[in-house]
Amino acid sequence: MGEIVKMDIQNSNEMKFNGLLKDKSFINGDWVSADDKSTFEVINPFDNSLITNVASLGGQETRRAIDCATEAFKTWSKTTAEERSNLLKKLYQLQMDYLDDLAQILTLEQGKPLKESRGEIKYGASFIEWFAEEARRTYGDTIPSHGVDKRIITIKQPVGVVAAITPWNFPNAMITRKIAPALAAGCTIIVKPAKQTPLSALALAALVEKAGFPKGVFNVITANTAREIGDEFTSNSLVRKISFTGSTKVGKTLMRQCADTVKKVSMELGGNAPFIVFEDANIDNAVSGAIASKFRNAGQTCVCTNRIFVHDKIYETFVDKFTKAVRKLKLGSGLDEKTEIGPLINKDAVEFIDGLVKKSVSEGAELILGGQQIDNMENFYPPTILSNVNSDMEIFKNEIFGSIAPIIKFNDEAEVIRMANDTPFGLASYFYTNDYAKIWRVSEGLEYGMVGVNTGMISTTVAPFGGVKESGNGREGSKYGMDDYLEIKYLCIGGI
Ligand code: ADP
Predict the structure, then answer these.
(1) Which residue is closest in CA terms to ligand 1's atom 2?
(2) What is the DSSP string of 137-196?
(3) Could you list the pLDDT tens digit for every one of the 496 residues in the chain?
(4) Are 35 and 151 in a shared domain?
(5) Residue 343 Cα, ligand 1 centroid: separation in angstroms?
(6) From the CB of 253, is ligand 1 less than 6 Å away?
(7) What is the CATH number of the domain that holds 198?
(8) What's the domain count of the chain?
(9) Ligand 1, closest atom to CA 247?
(10) In terms of Cα–Cα distance, which of 441, 386, 445, 394 is closest to 418?
(11) Which domain holds residue 217?
(12) From ligand 1's centre to the CA of 223, what distance in Å?
């Protein structure tokens, strides 16, 4: 097990956040409480201490927010791309100016190490900057006509009011990745963040307010119970699009619910990423790539490596080097600069992955490292390595979302591609090889939306992020990211 870094968290609660720590929802430019004044607790996962209580809204307030966003859309959608771009640039600058406050709030409510939180705030800001630029490039076409008296052109228009539902693992970036293209396109938006991490969303709302966006253009609804908000978002015909990041289970429910009003949907759902190390790979690079993609955010990202496949010829060497490197990872408070692995989001998450480890061992996997809950650190789970895993085991089929690395032995390329694809998911995948022909064959053979070749880090604003199969649809970031928030309208001009 890794070294444990402890820290006095109480001192951290006294830090100043430059007015960015908010406890009310943000609707139509106002900070609002629930109609019935109800609130819920936001808990620091490091030690289960209370950070603050936040307003818990319901269906009624959501309806009002949708009405306000609908009203705001009338004028926001008519602004010039330049106006929207300039406001987004201001927001980008504010997010960078307040980087430290935003990162500390993020670590407090989510638990990830400060270094990762700073990275997330910069990554989150990069979407705002990118779409501030893209706002000015939503070109249409002129199409050669089918008739001498006709001319054809296309224009792009914002889809309308967007509702976004976001998870707790990236409390800032999963929101900016949606709001930036939506606002750039001329849509108005209502965000419902996860109840575990509402503070980063509210801090962002405070920056939107500072930037001077018109009221009703960006709204945040905080709630203890997601269901009521989701029901209103999906059934209300004024909402034209749902953008969701979260579990496949909830994504499917939302898609079903959206059917009645035929909403546009973008779904960024679960993953079960394979990480394949071929016999000709640079093993040291593969070890560091596997650590980066497995243990970032304590394994709680949808692109985290879920199954490590290693070729028979290099299996022992890889397992040995990987184990030595993982053993050095430092657990502790995210606020301590030395920490590399923070807590999991809560006790349920710890119990889930502890159960997976026990089940794997009972199914014949070998426990190489970790595998024991830690005394007095309820929400922590040590980095854990399991070898001799096979495709019949439960861990092979599940999205782990925690710090367990299961290793599977393979012998040939076709077999490993088949095993890698043997899952309903299709988000991220990774492989290491120095054979250029294999790079093409395997990249084309993997049924995934994203492939990392000789790297474990693939997320960037400039590339399209998204999945296939039950990992979802739509793409976020890149030149394609605006498309999800735009409709193409075709104009046929006759009588010429
Ligand atoms: P996770 O396992 O990461 O918590 P979820 O899919 O449960 O993933 O949660 C992702 C987001 O979806 C959160 O904001 C959560 O509150 C929200 N959510 C969960 N259930 C529903 C629902 N029935 N309707 C709308 N949103 C929901």
Answers:
(1) 247
(2) G----EE--SSTT-EEEEEEEE--EEEEE--SSSTTHHHHHHHHHHHHHT-EEEEE--TT
(3) 445 554 444 444 445 699 999 999 999 999 999 999 999 999 999 999 999 999 999 999 999 999 999 999 999 999 999 999 999 999 999 999 999 999 999 999 999 999 999 999 999 999 999 999 999 999 999 999 999 999 999 999 999 999 999 999 999 999 999 999 999 999 999 999 999 999 999 999 999 999 999 999 999 999 999 999 999 999 999 999 999 999 999 999 999 999 999 999 999 999 999 999 999 999 999 999 999 999 999 999 999 999 999 999 999 999 999 999 999 999 999 999 999 999 999 999 999 999 999 999 999 999 999 999 999 899 999 999 999 999 999 999 999 999 999 999 999 999 999 999 999 999 999 999 999 999 999 999 999 999 999 999 999 999 999 999 999 999 999 999 999 999 999 999 999 9
(4) yes
(5) 20
(6) yes
(7) 3.40.605.10
(8) 2
(9) 6
(10) 445
(11) 18-269+471-490
(12) 11
Q: Do both 277 and 265 map to the same domain?
A: no
The verdict on residue 1 lying in a domain is no
207/262 same-domain check: yes
Q: Do residues 112 and 121 lie in contact, with contact meaning Cβ atoms separated by under 8 Å?
A: no
Say if ligand 1 is within 6 A of residue 226 CB. yes
How far is Cα 353 from Cα 346, in angstroms, rounded to an integer?
11
Which two three-digit tokens encode residue 275? 């990480």
Phi, psi of 485 (to 5 degrees): -110, 10
Residue 364 is part of a domain; what is its CATH number? 3.40.309.10
Q: How far, in Å, is the centroid of ligand 1 from the Cα of 280?
A: 42
Q: Which residues are identified as catalytic?
A: 268, 302
pTM of the model: 0.96
